[in-house]
Amino acid sequence: MADTIHVLNGPNLNLLGTREPEIYGRTTLADIERMCRETAAAHGIDIVFRQTNFEGELVTQLQEARGSLGVVLNAGAYTHTSIALADAIKAAGLNVVEVHLSNVFAREAFRHHSFLSPVARGVICGFGAEGYRLAIAALAASRAK
Ligand code: DQA
Q: How many CB atoms sit inside 10 A of residue 77's CB?
C-alpha cells in the first residue's frame, strides 16, 4: 500500500492523442500509462492508473488512495473549478503531485487558478507526458527520505 502510487486522470484525458494535438500532443493515455508503469517499476513501486470524466468519481478515487505513497493527479478542467477535489485531498491526507500536460499559465486566464495547488505537495506543468514521469520520480524520492 505504502509503495503504491495512484495516477488519477480527469475529464477528457481519455481522448489524448486526438484531442487538440497542437496543445496536448499525440501521446495517448495508454502511452502515458505504459510510461508510468515503466518508471514506477524502476523504483520498485506499484501503480494504480485510472481515468474518469466524473468529478464525484475522482473524489472517490482520491479517498481510495488513502495510505498510498502518493497521487499523481491530472484533474483536467476540474483543477480550476473543484472545491470537492481539494477537500478530498485534505480529508484523505494525500501527498499529491498536480500534473498538467500543457503549461496552463501560458493559456487562458481561467486556467491560471487551481483549487488543488494549495493542497498539493507540488505542481508540474508544461512538459507533456514527461510530467507524469517526473511526478513519479519526485514521489519515489520523497519515500527514500
Ligand atoms: C490540463 C489543463 C487543463 O486546463 C485542461 O482543462 C485539461 C488538461 C493539462 O493536462 O494540460 O483538461 O489539465
A: 13
> Is any ligand 1 atom within 6 A of the Cβ of residue 15?
no
Give the dihedral of Cα atoms 103, 56, 12, 9; nearest 10 deg: 60
∠ CA 88-91-95, nearest 5°, is 80
What angle do the packed helices 55-64 and 83-92 form, to 10 degrees? 10
* Domain parsing of the chain, residue ranges: 4-143
Q: How confident is the model at residue 11 (pLDDT cuts 50, 70, 90)?
A: very high
* Among protein residues, the one whose CA lies closest to atom 13 of ligand 1: 76
Q: Give pTM, 2 decimals.
A: 0.96
Give me ligand 1 centre to Cα 144, in Å.
Answer: 30
- Residues noted as catalytic: 24, 100
Q: Which residues contact 141 (CB under 8 A, 6 or more apart)?
A: none
Residue 143: the pLDDT is 82
Q: Which CATH superfamily is domain 4-143 in?
A: Dehydroquinase, class II (3.40.50.9100)
Question: Residue 3: which H helix or E strand, with range?
Answer: none
